[in-house]
Amino acid sequence: MKKVLFVCLIMLAFATNSNAQDASEFKTKTIEFIKLTGAATAFDNAIKQLGAMVSEENKEAYFKEANETLVGLYDKMAELYMSEFTQPEIDELIKFYHTDLGKKLADKQLKLTQRAMAFGQSWGIEVQGIAAKYN
Predict the structure, then answer these.
(1) In the chain, what's the furthest Cα-to-Cα distance?
(2) What's the gap between Cα 90 and its chain centre?
(3) Does pTM top 0.85 for this prediction?
(4) Whole-angstrom Cα distance, residue 84 to residue 19?
(5) C-alpha–C-alpha distance, residues 12 and 24, integer Å
(6) Which 3-state string (H, E, C) describes the chain?
(7) Who has the most CB within 10 Å: 43, 103, 114, 132?
(8) pLDDT for 64-115, tens place per residue?
(9) Cα dihedral 58, 62, 65, 68 sign
C-alpha cells in the first residue's frame, strides 16, 4: 500500500512539474509575442520620456528601477493574453510577427493606435453634440 501511495505521489509531482513547465513555456512565449507587437519599444520610449525630467546624477538609478518594473508588467500582460489565446494560437501569432507583414504591423501599430484614438475622441465629441441637441 505504501509503495502504491509513493508511486502515486511521484506521478502527481511529475504531472504538476510538467504542467508548471508547460505554463512557464506558455508565459515565456506569450511575453515574446507581446514584445514582438511593438510593446517593448513603446514601453522603452515611455521610460525614456519620463526619464527626461530626472536629474543627470539620478538617471542611471532611474533607468535601472524603471526597467525592473517591466518584468511585472509583462507578467500581467502575459496572464491577460493567456486568458484569451491558447498556446498554439500564441505560437501562430509569433510566426506572423516574424514575417515581413508582421514586422511592418509591429512597427506601425503604435502610430496607428494613437491616430485611431484621436479619431475616436473627435467622434465622441461629435456624438456628444448630437446627444446634447436631443436633450
Answers:
(1) 80
(2) 12
(3) no
(4) 19
(5) 18
(6) CHHHHHHHHHHHHHHHHHHHHHHHHHHHHHHHHHHHHHHHHHHHHHHHHHHCCCCHHHHHHHHHHHHHHHHHHHHHHHHHHHHHCCHHHHHHHHHHHCCHHHHHHHHHHHHHHHHHHHHHHHHHHHHHHHHHHCC
(7) 43
(8) 999 999 999 999 999 999 999 999 999 999 999 999 999 999 999 989 999 9
(9) negative
